[in-house]
Specification:
This protein is α+β, with helices and mostly antiparallel strands. The protein folds into two domains: 3-138, Fructose-1,6-Bisphosphatase, subunit A, domain 1 (Fructose-1,6-Bisphosphatase, Chain A, domain 1, 2-Layer Sandwich); 147-257, 3-Layer(aba) Sandwich (D-Maltodextrin-Binding Protein, domain 2), CATH 3.40.190.80. Helices cover 33% and strands 27% of the residues. Strands 4-3-5-6-7-8-9-10 form an eight-stranded mixed β-sheet, with helices on both faces. Strands 12-11-13-15-14 form a five-stranded mixed β-sheet, sandwiched between helices. The protein has a two-stranded antiparallel sheet with strand order 1-2. Strand 9 (132-134) and strand 10 (137-138) form a beta hairpin. It is an enzyme of class 3 (hydrolase). Pfam families: Inositol_P. Belongs to the inositol monophosphatase superfamily. Keywords: Hydrolase, Magnesium, Metal-binding.
């Protein structure tokens, strides 16, 4: 299938979803899926807009999305993996670090990723073996060579405790890196690694829709993506380590994978 057509569909869908998010600012109702795990009317409105547009273009394709979306009727080699609002807590609090994330798999392999930040009007995109772009211009990761010079970001579980393994990993890295942050959007974190804005990112609690698009964008930019524990990777596994591909990756993997006893 034509890559240009697929990317155009994904980018248009992402913009339609993002428009819903902006239209719902200060109007939405908030509920909890779990402790501190928020969902808003905007999430559902965005997902509806995205699904409607993609379905108009490719009615036979399967879909998987955060807000109860699991369309798998009929046979198809294609599956869209959609997060209509990555960074819901940021969105609820008016912190402008959230996005729409849309990935596409073909026969189980990621082939397309689009992440749109409506506040910055930044469209990150990639198609397999065609490189990664930001607003149409190629992007590459940083060349920072070591963790002590690096800015890295972690995702921590919502409603976590001080005893959580993710918190212990965060604290283990904290004295070793130049800067360690927690920002609240996995998809944007992966894109920021791709564009050289941060040097590494990790999480042990993601869902497929959090990372499908960002993983492809990062890999196509020249970044390295594995699990925290080893060199393998799948969006069905919640563990991810993404870096600029320098020795930072080995340094982080060593720190994060060591037993925490």
């Amino acid at each position: 299938m034509n890559s240009t057509e697929l990317i155009k569909t994904a980018e248009t869908a992402a913009r339609l979803g993002a428009k819903c998010l902006l239209d719902w600012v200060d109007k939405f109702q908030v509920s909890e899926k779990g402790r501190a795990d928020l969902v808003t009317d905007a999430d559902f409105a965005s997902q509806t807009a995205i699904v409607e547009h993609i379905s108009q273009q490719f009615p036979s394709h399967h879909m998987l999305g955060e807000e109860g979306l699991a369309h798998q009727e009929g046979e198809s080699d294609y599956r869209w993996v959609i997060d209509p609002l990555d960074g819901t807590s940021n969105y609820v609090h008016g912190f402008p670090y959230y996005c729409v994330s849309i990935g596409l798999e073909f026969k189980g392999e990621l082939i397309l990723g689009v992440v749109y930040d409506p506040n910055a009007d930044e469209m990150f995109s990639a198609f397999r073996e065609q490189g990664a772009k930001l607003n149409g211009k190629p992007i590459t990761p940083s060349q920072i060579p070591s963790l002590d010079q690096a800015m890295v970001v972690a995702s921590l579980p919502v409603g976590t405790s001080a005893q959580d393994i993710a918190v212990k990993r965060f604290l283990r890295v904290l004295p070793e890196a130049q800067t360690v942050q927690r920002t609240g959007s996995a998809a944007l974190n992966l894109c920021y690694v791709s564009a050289g804005r941060i040097d590494g990112y990790w999480s042990s609690n993601l869902k497929p829709w959090d990372m499908a698009a960002g993983v492809l964008i990062c890999r196509e930019s020249g970044g390295t993506v594995t699990s925290i524990e080893d060199g393998s990777y799948s969006i069905e596994i919640p563990s991810i380590l993404a870096t600029n591909g320098t020795n930072i990756h080995n340094e982080l993997q060593t720190l994060l994978a060591e037993p925490l006893f």
